[in-house]
Amino acid sequence: MRQAKWHDMREFIEFLEKKNDLVHITDEVDPQWEINGLARVALQNHASAIVFDRIKGADYPLAANLLGTDRRFLWALGIDKWGDFNNEWIRRTERPIAPRIMKDAPCQEIVIEGKDVDLNRICNVVWHQFDGGPFPGTLSVSVTKDPDTGGLNAGIYRMGTLGRNLLGWGAPEYTHGRQHYMKYERRHEAMPMAVITGYDPTVLIVASTRTAPGVDEFQLAGGLRGEPLDMVQCQTVPLIVPATCEFVFEGVVRPHDRKIEGGFGEYTGHYGEARSNPVFEVQRITCRRKPMYLGTREQWYPSESALTVGKSSQAEAFKTVRSLVPGVLDMRCDVTYECIVQIDKLFPGHAQQVIDAVWGATYARYKHVIVVDKDIDIWDYDSVHWALSTRVRGDRDITISPRRAGQWLDPAVPLREKGWQTGVGIDATLCTEEYRFWGEEPAKTVDDPETVVRLVKKWGGKLDILAKKKMI
Ligand SMILES: Cc1cc2nc3c(=O)[nH]c(=O)nc-3n(C[C@H](O)[C@H](O)[C@H](O)COP(=O)(O)O)c2cc1C
Ligand SMILES: [Mn+2]
Does domain 83-295 have CATH number 2.30.110.10? Predict the structure, then answer.
């Protein structure tokens, strides 16, 4: 088994250095455009992670694109290939593991407070050319507590700088963090919040994961690592945070306060408009000695945020759908609003039940659900497109479901209708009733093993020439 647990971000960075998959940019860079440009080139070429050692105007180095490729995401979890991913996720998270609470923690080695708090000196990066300003909060995890149950939540929501100690908080109503805030706001109380960045990569993955409500992402991380996360009490808010993270921002989100923040280059690949968001007031910062910040561009595909949210949420969706419907074999969701499900079709209407289950089990996520048979390889888009083009009859196999909870940023939705999406379910399984003539399993033109056996017997090694030709 490959390494699946990391002490902190530093250990993962050392691992990437050994793999020759991380570069240090030692020249001083301009936060207005050079980090944007270099991070973009790296993401689009599926290239290495980057550490910017010196940034004009900022006091700390910054890591970017940490999990921005399939290989680094899988390395972080110690998994070999996507085909193993869903089942491995389910196996590890079957038993969530509660954190271990430490007395002392590296993330509290240094304290910055009062007038010394100046977000611009910590992270001043403009990630996309037309952003409204610096966005320190890209891979920053908001930790909050449900005031009714005491349950913790960790979610990544974007945050733009509004002042020396003020950040806009981009958590929409369908997120768990915002739902905690809505409870505090109804009581006219300020919500205590801790925002962390620069953590072991499992924390990044769980904080990007769409889970069922009430799930503690830190316990999920414990399950994924096979060992509890070490955590520590914050100094000024009643919350715990991972002990080895690089930075902790402690503060409050006050009720009934909104400020305009943005626009921002979003995961859809388009800019989101400036929005009226709640405001996070930072009261104290704690950090490690010689800390390193963590961030990412969102951008068009391929992007780190689409990858991390996409794959982890896919695994949780698969877990839930598999518990509701029989015969669900695998699931793939890596282009943001699309979910492809592979089933062993057992009864008429099976694919339709899967479509309903995906919509019911997830929120504001999968506009398009495509269901395919077990002979289709969902990890090969050619195979999926083959099924879409040969097995779908538009008037029979496509279900349209308007007015579902949707992503605010969906560029297909006009401004007035933001928050709604139209669901499209496509049953791309073979309509077996129509093929009964051939028996239960209509034969495919490559389903004749005898021909292959005879061919290999007679032509043997000469077949290599054909195989090689095919690869050219
Ligand atoms: C870099 C990055 C930025 C993100 N920004 C936002 C955001 O601004 N708003 C949002 O709703 N989700 C954002 N997400 C996705 C959420 O983190 C994800 O939906 C997660 O499940 C939210 O946590 P929750 O389910 O506990 O609310 C972002 C993810 C990443 C990786
Ligand atoms: Mn959550």
Answer: yes
